[in-house]
């Protein structure tokens, strides 16, 4: 078992860079530490490294995020490709701006409340049990609503992203190789993310839907790149014109249906000016009514002195 300790940090220090400094002075001044791919299992007490701002610990065997509460100046933390199953013990990192946790065993994005400066969160390719998907704690999403700008959730078996509507300041969303299926869900999301300019959904079933790209471009005026392909202004303008024309035809069709429903039944010109009426002729026989039909009587215009024309 390999532990990341102050002694290990001191032994790795370059003597030329240290000059005449003693170990304690060196540890207090250090700002960057790179212990990636060193088979580290445990983060030990590094509290002397109070000015640490960037810590590289990717490609190790770390199973728990621990002993980092001292690092109040830390802005970048790289923990991808470890054995971490739970996001925890990060609440003291008030200046943290970028957090890399891809390639671990995390099932829920949680416990990031209080990280008001966090701009980038990378949780792609979690090693989840078969059939499970990455979930999001609503409290964590709400706490990141004002700060988070970049989110990478690729390859996590995610089939819906409605919860991400909370992240109103998101500018880049990378959700490659998931199970997103419905264009309508993406349209609703884009409607709630007015600052999003880059979205990559390659490898999702939704990408195969008819008019998928066209519909998303029309829905978002801020989107500049979709699935790695730039959205040019001429493309957006063409699609906007197409949608406006389509909507206009749809509205006309609706109005036509309303007019047809409210209009009286159609009559021919002949029927509109003629009326069939009954009449008697001759002397009626006792017990019988001699009933005949004058075929049509032409209706006279109002105030007309002409007599109706009778046809038999």
UniProtKB/TrEMBL annotation:
<dbReference type="InterPro" id="IPR001611">
    <property type="entry name" value="Leu-rich_rpt"/>
</dbReference>
<dbReference type="GO" id="GO:0005813">
    <property type="term" value="C:centrosome"/>
</dbReference>
<keyword id="KW-0206">Cytoskeleton</keyword>
<keyword id="KW-0963">Cytoplasm</keyword>
<comment type="function">
    <text>Regulates phosphatase activity of protein phosphatase 1 (PP1) complexes in the testis.</text>
</comment>
<dbReference type="InterPro" id="IPR032675">
    <property type="entry name" value="LRR_dom_sf"/>
</dbReference>
<keyword id="KW-0433">Leucine-rich repeat</keyword>
<dbReference type="InterPro" id="IPR050836">
    <property type="entry name" value="SDS22/Internalin_LRR"/>
</dbReference>
<protein>
    <recommendedName>
        <fullName>Protein phosphatase 1 regulatory subunit 42</fullName>
    </recommendedName>
</protein>
<dbReference type="Pfam" id="PF13855">
    <property type="entry name" value="LRR_8"/>
</dbReference>
<comment type="subunit">
    <text>Interacts with PPP1CC isoform gamma-2; the interaction is direct. Interacts with actin, dynein, KIF5B, KIFC1 and tubulin. Associates with microtubules.</text>
</comment>
<dbReference type="Pfam" id="PF14580">
    <property type="entry name" value="LRR_9"/>
</dbReference>
<keyword id="KW-0677">Repeat</keyword>
């Amino acid at each position: 078992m390999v532990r990341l300790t102050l002694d290990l940090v001191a032994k790795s220090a370059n003597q030329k860079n240290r000059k005449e400094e003693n170990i304690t002075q060196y540890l207090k001044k250090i700002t960057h530490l790179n212990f990636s791919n060193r088979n580290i299992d445990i983060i030990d007490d590094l509290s002397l490294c109070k000015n640490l701002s960037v810590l590289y610990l990717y490609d190790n065997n770390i199973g728990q995020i621990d002993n980092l509460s001292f690092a109040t100046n830390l802005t970048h933390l790289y923990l991808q490709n470890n054995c971490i199953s739970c996001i925890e013990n990060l609440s003291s990192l008030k200046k943290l701006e970028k957090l890399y946790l891809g390639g671990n065993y995390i099932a829920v994005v949680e416990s990031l409340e209080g990280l008001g400066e966090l701009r980038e969160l990378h949780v792609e390719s979690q090693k989840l049990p078969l059939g499970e998907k990455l979930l999001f704690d609503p409290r964590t999403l709400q706490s990141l609503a004002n700060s988070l700008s970049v989110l990478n959730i690729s390859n996590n078996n995610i089939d819906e992203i409605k919860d991400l509507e909370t992240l109103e300041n998101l500018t880049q969303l990378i959700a490659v190789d998931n199970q997103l299926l419905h264009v309508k869900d993406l349209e609703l999301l884009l409607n709630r993310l007015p600052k999003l300019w880059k979205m990559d959904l390659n490898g999702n079933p939704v990408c195969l839907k008819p008019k998928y790209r066209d519909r998303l471009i029309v829905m978002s005026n801020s989107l500049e790149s979709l699935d790695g392909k730039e959205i040019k202004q001429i493309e957006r303008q063409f699609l906007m014109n197409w949608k406006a024309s389509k909507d206009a035809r749809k509205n006309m069709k609706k109005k036509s249906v309303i007019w047809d429903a409210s209009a009286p039944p159609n009559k021919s010109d002949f029927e509109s000016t003629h009326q069939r009426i009954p009449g008697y002729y001759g002397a009626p026989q006792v017990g019988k009514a001699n009933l005949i039909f004058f075929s049509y009587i032409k209706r006279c215009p109002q105030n007309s002195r002409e007599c109706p024309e009778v046809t038999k």
